[in-house]
Amino acid sequence: MTGISTFIMVLEGLLAGVGVTVLVTLASLALGVALGFGLALVRQFGRLRAAHFLIDAYCEIMRNIPALTHLFILYFGLASIGLRLSALVAAVLGLGLIGAAVTCDLFRSGFSALPNGQREAALAVGFTPFQAIFDILTPQALRIALPSLGNYAVQLLKDTSIVSAIAAPEIMFYARSMVTSSFQTTLIYVTAAGLYLLLSLPLMQAVRFLESRYGRLKA
Amino acid sequence: MSDFIQPYLEYGGEWAPLLIRAMGTTALLSICAFALSLVFGLLLSLCRHARSPVLRHFATAYVSLVRGVPLLAILFLLYFGLPGVGITFNAFSGAVLGLALAFAAQVAELFRAGLMAIPRGQREAALAVGFTPIQSFRLIVLPQVVRVIIAPLIVTFVSLLKDSSLASLITVNELVLTGRAMATEYFLPLQIYLAVGLCYFLIAWPFSLLSRRLAAPTG
User: Is the ipTM of this complex over 0.95?
Assistant: First the structure.
């Protein structure tokens, strides 16, 4: 009986963080996808050499440095020169800026998978280059990129747990602070893991659906 | 700008040895964890092809369970949670085990994809010319699998290297934790975390370039 009531107490404590976990996931996903799509368009269709170089450099820097380091730079580093971000803003900004580099690559491989003829045909039948990109190429590239974008979303959901290191009040943050006040360490972390699993399993199921639906278009 | 550069000139000589030593810890941690995850991952992928349904279900459940739970939860559970049931690790071996258990799921998926890419005839032919099942796997199938998956394996290693930064949160004295200690000592978090980011980049980037080189059709 006491076991069950302790569990309920732990669960209630952790549920307080679910909202922030979901919020950080969605906000950084939106930022990452929007920015990544823009970068992919410029990198794929822009003519400016300097822009290509900058985008490539950005992606390399973002993808070869751990998210935790990026978060510390944004949260502790910028604060030291007077640019004080709240933990939540730093978390969304950090994960979103990294996500932009990740999704930029995903969108680009979507665009690269399309045969050149698609664009040429669109131009030949009188689409403007702009229309060709947005009306003909983008919908096809999106379908190809969708399963990998879904996998990225699952990864992102799990990665939000590290923003507890800059004290953003999500699930892991509550878990860590509960551990210091009660001594139910194992129970708390198992419950936290279970909560993440409850959030990520439906997402993984959705990705599997997308893969079965759109995956074969890859060939 | 000169305010920003100046600490590097002033303290660079003190910081460099600390960071280099921490880079060594990060590298050692990542290499140990990666080696172990290759072993676990190979075993898991063999379980998925096993005749016993128990092993098959175990492997499938393990992969989806681990892929749905954040690495941080796994690390906290191993390091802070298991002592509650009488199992203790030191921080370094806890981090190695946690990283290996988490990445084994990814490695297993890679091996599985690699195994499916090798035609059945290879194994059948090896058996027909008198190799034992183990020899045919080790000498004929596995080398070909490794060729197929070497590029994604290196990408996985880079992710593991980045995720090894989470070991700082269970008190492994690697790059991020060293950076934190330095940041509190010198009150220069921006400069120090940027230097930490550069250290990661210096380790990770060559591997990223290598993986792309190997993945290119001409390579």
Answer: no
